[in-house]
Write a structure and sequence with these properties.
Length: 138
């Protein structure tokens, strides 16, 4: 999470009482692993990746089979999640509470506040728009 908040390696090193090069190396290794996770999720779901940030655990792609934009997220708490851009009827879906819990958890990790009355489809759209804006992808 410190990487998302742009905390410099020197500050992390002081907090953890390790060397700055150790932190930098650990971050490089983490980026490589997260990149591999995002690409594997994309490949498994036949998603063509358009933009990716391993540092932030976020990728955007397109799934030609479903003809929709797709978002792939990585979080230490929620692991890898694949989200398809669609207008769902969340009230009738058995995954409503699970999607809502994960999306709101991701929003909290990113430091975004989301109104409680939004359904998961609206939460996802708001969250991913805010992430794209923060990453400068809009």
């Amino acid at each position: 999470m410190k990487r998302r908040n742009k905390v410099p390696p020197s500050v992390i090193a002081k907090e953890l009482k390790v060397s700055r090069p150790f932190v930098s190396q650990a971050q490089r290794i983490a980026n490589q692993r997260i990149r591999k996770l995002l690409l594997t999720a994309a490949q498994m779901n036949r998603i063509s990746v358009e933009n990716m940030s391993p540092e932030f655990g976020f990728a955007i792609g397109y799934n030609p089979a479903t003809d929709v934009k797709t978002y792939i997220t990585y979080s230490p708490e929620f692991r890898v999640q694949v989200w398809f851009d669609h207008e769902g009827d969340c009230g009738k879906c058995e995954l409503h509470s699970e999607c809502d819990r994960i999306l709101r958890g991701l929003a909290a990790e990113w430091g975004f506040s989301i109104p409680k009355e939004m359904d998961p489809t609206q939460v996802a759209k708001t969250l991913f728009d805010k992430i794209k804006e923060r990453l400068g992808w809009e």
